[in-house]
Design goal:
43% of the residues lie in helices and 15% in strands. With 431 residues, it is of the alpha/beta class. The protein folds into 2 domains: 113 residues, no CATH class; 274 residues, Vaccinia Virus protein VP39 (Rossmann fold). It starts with a helix and ends in a 19-residue tail after the last strand. Belongs to the CFA/CMAS family.
């Protein structure tokens, strides 16, 4: 096909009814679109077939992961320009022909079918999780979901996360700080909010690679039990604990939080874990943590939250993230999270929104990945590395544009007498 880029651009704009904000560079070397704009590189006709059979975000993601699509130029700028077009299109349509209503648009869709060629549709990349959406958030399904996300390889995560090995939003003193400084400040903030003192017991739910457990034990003299469902994380964390000489204070378990038998604890931290719990299980999660706390104990729940929808019954999980990144992951509005914690018996004492901090964190993770791209692709495979680059860059923009947020909720299991143990002045975090 001569001048495939111009043909694609014309058909897509005719179909959508708006100009494309990015250039198109097609498999024949042709280009079309706004000069100087980032380019959507369409490497083959299969990319068009993917979009025809799964319009919107998931179709683009499949083409990206498979290497059928790429972006030339600033990745963030390209995603930002395309975001409204993608996010406003439904993910449930089986083909573009089902999305159009007028004869001109139908003609454009038929034209795209001719450009795409046969056969239709292409198989999804093997990195996509495909399963029946039933029996979510059982212990077995949660183990599978956690393994898919976290057992990618510790060496790969070392590239992305850097020496801190903390996989949650950092807490930045200034945009120019290092990632390690910001992650250290986040660990310190959590420990101060929990008012940890020597001899106390801390439960770290979703302990990851052990960074918070090590910091709390080393700097605050507490005993820590960290639980994770990832065998790779646990092995890595135990090695770090031993290297710090903290095996007498820190125990890392491969264990579901629902199976922790040895409460009560003086404090509980749940950092970046509650997104895996699910709406149907959230009250159970809150009740389990309440049960595991001593009266007067504090919970620090650090969790990503989405914006409320007018019709909550129609909310669907992000198609790309559910299929490639966090299977069965669910985001809840902040109000829902606070309400469920209160229903479980907690007294919510403080909420700190740190949305901007996650945008900064994700951009550093993307930069780490891009700086060591050749090694990352050898370790995790090209498709998995592409998943992570797209996921983190898109999420950075989502936080920066206030499409999602992240919050630290501090709650207390207040004793019957009403003495919460909290300071009179907020955010001094003393005992």
């Amino acid at each position: 096909m001569a001048d495939a880029a111009l043909r694609l651009k014309s058909l897509v704009e005719q179909l959508l009814g708006v100009p494309l904000p990015v250039r198109i560079r097609a498999w024949d070397g042709s280009q079309a679109g706004p000069p100087g704009a980032p380019a959507l590189v369409v490497r083959n006709r299969r990319a068009v077939r993917r979009l025809l059979f799964k319009p919107g975000e998931l179709g683009l993601a499949r083409a990206w992961v498979a290497g059928d699509l790429d972006i030339e130029g600033d990745l963030y700028a390209a995603l930002d320009l395309m975001s409204e077009l993608v996010w406003e299109r439904g993910e449930d349509a089986r083909s573009l022909l089902q999305m159009v209503r007028d004869p001109e648009a139908r003609a454009a869709a038929r034209g795209l079918v001719k450009v795409a060629g046969l056969p239709l549709p292409p198989a999804p990349p093997r990195e996509e999780v495909r399963r029946a959406r039933t029996h979510l958030h059982t212990k077995r399904s949660d183990r599978r979901a956690i393994s898919h996300h976290y057992d990618v390889g510790n060496d790969f995560y070392e590239i992305v996360l850097g020496p801190s090995m903390v996989y949650s939003c950092a807490y930045w003193p200034a945009p120019g700080a290092t990632l390690e400084e910001a992650q250290r400040d986040k660990l310190e903030l959590i420990c101060r909010k929990l008012a940890l003192t020597p001899g106390q017991r801390l439960l770290d739910v979703g302990c990851g690679w052990g960074s918070l457990a090590i910091h709390a034990a080393r700097e605050y003299g507490v005993g820590v039990v960290g639980v994770t469902l990832s065998h790779e994380q646990a092995a890595y964390a135990r090695k770090r604990v031993a290297g710090e000489g903290l095996t007498d204070r820190v125990e890392i378990r491969v264990q579901d939080y629902r199976d922790v038998p040895d409460g009560p604890y003086h404090a509980i931290a749940s950092v970046g874990m509650a997104e895996h719990v699910g709406a149907e299980r959230y009250l159970e999660y809150a009740e389990d943590l309440y049960r595991l706390l001593k009266p007067g104990g504090r919970l620090l729940n650090h969790q990503i939250g989405r914006r409320p929808q007018r019709d909550e019954s129609s909310y669907s999980v992000d198609g790309f993230i559910d299929a490639y990144v966090f299977p069965d992951g669910e985001l809840a509005p902040l109000g829902s999270t606070v309400g469920q914690l209160e229903r479980a018996g907690f007294e919510v004492r403080d909420v700190e929104a740190i949305r901007e901090h996650y945008g900064l964190t994700l951009r550093r993770w993307v930069a780490n990945l891009e700086a060591d791209w050749a090694r990352a692709t050898r370790l995790a495979g090209p498709a998995r590395a592409r998943v992570w680059r797209l996921y983190m860059a898109a999420c950075a923009l989502a936080f920066e544009r206030n499409r999602i947020g992240v919050n630290q909720v501090l709650a207390v299991r207040t004793p019957v007498g009403g003495d919460s143990g909290m300071p009179l002045r907020a955010r001094t975090w003393g005992a």
